[in-house]
Structures are given as structure tokens and as C-alpha cells.
Specification:
single chain, mainly beta, three-stranded antiparallel beta sheet
């Protein structure tokens, strides 16, 4: 039998998270999501965004935050990711996994 609670919870959060922000070099960058999907096979929510042309010099990404449409921060993560200027962008991927224990 499928676990409807896990499915509905993952879909709820997928519908809530609408954009990301990250901090780098003392600036905050708001970016759209490039992926926001529920993987029911693995009981995961997968959310991606790209760090590309917003940074115009070598810089370190120090924090990432996820927001809903109302601007409420739903989760955050401290990071230490070096983004070198002139190098291809960075794909940042966030996983939310749920599991049921019997």
C-alpha cells in the first residue's frame, strides 16, 4: 500500500517553496528554482537552482535559504562553496527525504 501521508507531505512542501536566496560577498541574491519535483519512488522532494552570472568575481556562497510566496524563510543552510568567476555555474540541489519506520 502506498503511503499517502508521505506523498501528501512532500507535495505540500513542493507547492510551498517558491524561490531561493543565497549570500555571497556580502550580497544576497534571489534566484528562481530550476527544479521542484516530488520523487515518490525515493520519498524525496528535489529542488534545484543555478548560481550563474549573478556573481561577477571569485566569491564564496555562505548561506542558502528557501522561501514561500509570502517571503517566509522555510529552511536555510550554512555553506562554504567557492564560485570562481568565469567558470561554469553551480547547480545547488536540496533534498527533503521522508521515511516511515514501523
Amino acid at each position: 500500500m502506498e503511503n499517502k501521508l508521505i506523498e501528501k507531505t512532500l507535495k505540500f512542501w513542493s507547492n510551498k517553496i517558491s524561490y531561493a536566496e543565497y549570500d555571497s560577498a556580502g550580497k544576497t541574491f534571489k534566484v528562481p528554482l530550476t527544479k521542484n519535483e516530488v520523487d515518490l519512488e525515493n520519498n524525496q522532494l528535489i529542488i534545484d537552482f543555478n548560481i550563474n552570472d549573478e556573481i561577477t568575481e571569485d566569491a564564496t556562497i555562505t548561506e542558502v535559504r528557501w522561501f514561500d510566496d509570502n517571503g517566509e524563510c522555510l529552511d536555510s543552510s550554512t555553506e562554504n562553496i567557492l564560485r570562481e568567476f568565469g567558470v561554469e555555474g553551480i547547480l545547488y540541489r536540496y533534498f527533503l527525504s521522508l521515511r516511515k519506520e514501523d
